[in-house]
Write a sequence for this structure.
């Protein structure tokens, strides 16, 4: 039975990964979920998992060296899947120090603890141990609207404190692979969407606001382009990289779903109207007039687009969910989990939302 240490497993992608792994492997694996339960970490994301005998939750900060070292000392960890990170650009602009602390120092601590636990006296590593660092396409900077793509060889050019901190954490992992021959991989993914996503991100924010008849804030002219990846496709790719990927390699994970932000908002509105029953009162106020253009984000990258050629050629992964299907599945999930949305959008989140979007 392999034991997986998942950091940030109560967050959006991490919780989807844990659900996916138990669907795939059932009782054949054990998962230890380490999460500090900051604003985006929510144990409600793991209902149905917490009761499993082969699942353990530990509340701990990845910057707490003693706590992380104790987890490795008490458990024979085979796989580390490192999701834990501060991940929202707007928050990084407002408070860069937290992003450097968590994303850079936290990653360093994870690397050091795994290295200490896995390293043999001769400098080799115990058989079968692997560390996967989950990163973002934002480390590559911004593309022109000319059809170019991010490849694994694209030079890093981060433009926000968030992307700079993730670039720093990527470089640390690379340095450990090169210097210590540490058994790791890096994945860089495009924008994720799907169940359990905290509603500061574009897709759940627009779904939630539209269902309440609130303004839909769109930065600048709305024509910034992102490549959208359904979260279940992403977590499947992560599992495949850990099992089939070549050690010390980076793999880009993209969705082949490039769309302008304004297109995403319009698709969400049209899909909501298509999916809501005719008698649902919310249909009366869901329309394109809710779209409200707001001052553009500082340092807002114009276009991201990932070429997942390498992961397809080497591992056989490719995205399965096109945006039209994925957004319907996502909206249906939010229809069925309105209480979840109410819980995560109360209190401090609401104050933050008002301050950022000024609506």
């Amino acid at each position: 039975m392999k034991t997986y240490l998942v950091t940030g497993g109560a967050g959006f992608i991490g919780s989807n990964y844990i659900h996916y792994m138990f669907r795939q492997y059932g009782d054949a694996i054990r998962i230890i979920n380490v999460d500090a339960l900051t604003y985006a970490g929510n144990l409600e994301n793991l209902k149905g998992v917490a009761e499993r005998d082969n699942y353990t939750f530990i509340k701990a900060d990845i910057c707490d060296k003693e706590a992380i070292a104790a987890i490795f000392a008490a458990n024979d960890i085979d796989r580390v899947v490192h999701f834990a990170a501060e991940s929202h650009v707007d928050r990084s602009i407002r408070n860069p120090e937290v992003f450097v602390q968590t994303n850079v120092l936290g990653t360093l601590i994870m690397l050091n603890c795994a290295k200490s636990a896995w390293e043999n006296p001769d400098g080799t590593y115990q058989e079968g141990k692997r560390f996967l660092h989950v990163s973002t396409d934002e480390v590559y900077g911004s593309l022109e609207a000319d059809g170019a793509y991010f490849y694994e060889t694209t030079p890093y050019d981060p433009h926000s404190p968030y992307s700079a901190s993730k670039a720093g954490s990527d470089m640390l992992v690379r340095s450990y692979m090169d210097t210590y021959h540490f058994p790791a991989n890096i994945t860089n993914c495009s924008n994720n969407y799907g169940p359990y996503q905290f509603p500061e991100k574009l897709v759940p924010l627009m779904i939630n606001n539209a269902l309440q008849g609130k303004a839909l804030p769109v930065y600048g002219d709305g024509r910034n382009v992102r490549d959208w990846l359904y979260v279940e496709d992403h977590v499947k790719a992560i599992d495949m990289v850990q099992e089939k990927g070549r050690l010390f390699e980076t793999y880009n994970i993209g969705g082949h779903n490039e769309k302008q932000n304004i297109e995403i908002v319009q698709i969400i509105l049209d899909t909501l109207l298509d999916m809501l029953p005719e008698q649902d009162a919310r249909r009366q106020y869901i329309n394109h007039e809710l779209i409200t253009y707001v001052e553009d984000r500082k340092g807002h990258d114009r276009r991201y687009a990932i070429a997942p050629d390498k992961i397809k050629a080497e591992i056989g992964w490719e995205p399965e969910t096109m945006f039209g299907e994925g957004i319907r599945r996502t909206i249906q999930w939010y229809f069925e989990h309105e209480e979840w949305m109410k819980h995560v959008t109360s209190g401090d989140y609401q104050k933050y939302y008002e301050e950022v979007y000024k609506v």
About this structure: The chain has a mean pLDDT of 94. The two ends are 51 Å apart (CA to CA).
